[in-house]
Amino acid sequence: MTFRIVVTLAAFVVLCAGSALPVLALSLEEAKTKGLVGEKPSGYLGAVTAGSGEVQSLIDEVNHKRRQAYEDIAKRNGTQLTAVETLAGEKAIHNTKPGNFIEGPGGWARK
């Protein structure tokens, strides 16, 4: 069961990392490259610094989609949502490109 969760999460993270949201002028990849958003251990995006409404909208949209996917994965595998979120956070941080931001115990840092 854990392997299936890992594979599903890995595919999801890859899709999210490279996807642009056509409704928004700022893509996820651009926001990460510009240091506006970063990956959190919780499996969600966060604002590295207080950003514009556009940045917050991007974060909200991506996090909403991630939450839905995590809930689906947890339900399919009969596991807790928090376990899926934590595993997704680990994978997202691991897959973050060097130079982009990740959140750690001391706050935001470039990977």
Describe the overall structure.
With 111 residues, the protein is of the alpha+beta class. The chain has one domain (2-102). 57% of the residues lie in helices and 13% in strands. It is built from 4 helices and 4 strands. The chain has helices spanning 2-18, 28-33, 53-77, 81-95, and strands spanning 37-39, 45-47, 101-104, 107-110. A 4-stranded mixed beta sheet has the order 2-1-3-4. A hairpin with a 2-residue loop joins strand 3 and strand 4 (107-110). Helix 1 (2-18) packs antiparallel against helix 3, helix 1 crosses helix 4 (81-95) and helix 3 (53-77) packs across helix 4 (81-95). The radius of gyration is 13 Å and the shape is globular. Mean pLDDT is 87; it is low at 18-24.
What's the helix and strand layout?
Layout: H1 2-18, H2 28-33, E1 37-39, E2 45-47, H3 53-77, H4 81-95, E3 101-104, E4 107-110
Helix pairs in contact: 1-3, 1-4, 3-4
